[in-house]
Design brief:
Layout: H1 2-17, H2 25-46, H3 51-99, H4 102-112, H5 117-131, H6 137-147, H7 151-166, H8 171-219, H9 230-254, H10 266-277, H11 281-287, H12 292-305, H13 309-354, H14 360-366, H15 376-388, H16 394-397, H17 406-419, H18 426-485
Length: 488
């Protein structure tokens, strides 16, 4: 296993530094590395660093330039996949709305899809539907879902299969899916623009930090011989290391895949749900008992060395251990709520489709089979309570009450009214409810994007730390050298 891991690392390193997958890729990588090396050598010459320092900084620049290029290429591939997927989904929704057949929608989508990976995948699914014997429609559509993971694609395919099997009117639901897709594209476009703007800010922050340090170095008198001191060389290396790390982290944050934001495996969701629903402070505290050994070691070391710093650090670490279970559970619950809101809209749309041909209780019961793992326990409980007391309003009122989600409470009130015969225009009510749920999801995703942009803003401040790493030792060194050479 260890050898395989090292082989994988070596393969990735070869692909980064010696790419052969595209024409002139190797030439572009090392042209960028040459430019970056030239800039670094010019800056180190201005700072009057020693030869050893120049070599260290030059090697770091040579190692980072291909990595930045690989990140940029990966980001381009992510954007290309995103546009291919959204284009496929939009065309499929329009075609399916007209014909209500997956095969016909695929054939018409294939005609307008440009040559490339998406075109090949659609053609493969079409062949499987026409000539395959063992696979059903849902299994064939999963071929594309494995290559383009995400809840929206899976939800759309699930919806198509249900319409083909159940029948009924689907135009209103397709309009909702198109609106959700439009909001998704618009949100990701705005996020991409904001991240590019912040990336530019980070780059200029790095440039300004270097210019400030260079300006301070130039106003110091040359007779102090400060530039030849070892501390001056070390502070210079520290500054450039922090600036290069800042650029690397900013590029990594820019490299986020829009499709991977939606991917949560069923196993991961189940583990998360079990941890939150079965939370116990005592149980979580037992998980971290091994960390108490560190606390005891710090206290023992402090007593042995008669230092107050080590016991103080141990007490601080112990306080962190005390609050960690509650903070971790709060973060897990926040993530679980995000998954529940996403999956709930899918489940509600399925219930709305089933309401066209059956009652509310039967629609909820039939939706159990395909419900998400984070919803299934609550739906099972709701079905059991409705079976025990079909005319009671309490099962609807208590459904997922512990999460205090307004869209869940609103939808349950509406379903309760329909089950009692007090709901008119069921189709329009369900459409309005799903629309509100989609808007709530859009607001949630916008908040997540703003948090990611906030992380980029934090990188904007990192070069200011690099200024401190360079200037504070330099000023102390200048002061010592100046006092040594001054006669009083």
């Amino acid at each position: 296993m260890k050898e395989r891991r090292w082989l994988r690392i070596a393969k990735n390193a070869r692909q980064i530094y010696f790419p052969v997958d595209r024409v002139d890729a190797l030439k572009k990588v090392w042209a960028l590395a040459g430019v970056m090396l030239a800039v670094m050598l010019f800056l180190t010459w201005l700072f009057q660093f020693r030869t050893q320092t120049i070599i260290v900084i030059g090697v770091m620049a040579l190692l980072e330039a291909p990595v930045l290029n690989a990140m940029y290429r990966k980001k381009e591939s992510y954007q290309k996949r995103f546009h291919s997927l959204t284009g496929y989904m939009e065309q499929m929704l329009y075609n399916f709305r007209t014909h209500k057949k997956v095969l016909v929608a695929l054939e018409q989508t294939l005609e307008v899809t440009p040559k490339g990976h998406m075109h090949e995948m659609i053609a493969q699914m079409r062949r499987e539907l026409l000539y395959g014997d063992s696979k059903g429609t849902r299994e064939v559509l999963e071929i594309l879902e494995h290559c383009y993971p995400g809840r929206r694609l899976s939800r759309m395919h699930e919806f198509f299969c249900k319409v083909e099997s159940l029948g009924g009117e689907c135009e209103l639901y397709i309009d909702l899916l198109l609106e959700d897709l439009r909001l998704y594209e618009q949100r990701e476009k705005l996020h991409e623009t904001a991240m590019k703007s912040r990336m530019v800010n980070v780059f200029f922050s790095v440039i300004i930090s270097i210019v400030i340090c260079l300006f301070v170095e130039k106003i110091i008198p040359d007779d102090t011989a400060m530039v030849s001191h070892l501390l001056y060389q070390i502070s210079g290396i520290g500054m450039f290391v922090l600036d290069l790390i800042c650029l690397l982290l900013a590029a990594k944050m820019m490299m986020s895949d829009p499709l991977s934001k939606e991917v949560v495996s069923e196993r991961e969701a189940k583990v998360l749900y079990d941890r939150v629903s079965g939370y116990s402070y005592r149980k979580e505290w037992k998980r971290q008992k091994k960390a108490l050994v560190i606390v005891a070691a710090f206290i023992a070391a402090g007593i042995y060395s008669q230092s107050i710093l080590l016991p103080g650090a141990a007490i601080a670490f112990f306080l962190v251990l005390l609050i960690k279970p509650k903070l971790s559970n709060r973060l897990r619950k926040k993530k679980l709520l995000s998954i529940i809101q996403s999956e709930y809209s899918i489940w509600l749309m399925e219930v709305g489709m089933l309401l066209q041909e059956t009652t509310v209780q039967e629609a909820i019961r039939r939706s159990q089979a395909n419900a998400s793992v984070v919803l299934k326990p609550h739906i099972n409980r709701l079905v059991q309570e409705l079976a025990d007391n079909p005319v009671s309003h309490l099962p609807y009122q208590n459904f997922m009450k512990e999460y205090q989600l307004s869209q869940v409470a609103s939808s349950m009130k509406m379903l309760c009214a329909i089950s009692g015969g007090g709901g008119n225009d069921v189709k329009e009510q369900v459409q309005a409810l799903i629309h509100l749920n989609i808007m709530a999801l859009d607001t949630l995703e916008q908040t997540k994007n703003e948090n990611r942009q906030g992380g980029m803003y934090a990188l904007f401040l990192l070069p200011q730390i690099a200024v401190g790493v360079k200037l504070i030792p330099d000023m102390l060194l200048f002061l010592l050298l100046f006092l040594r050479t001054t006669q009083f």
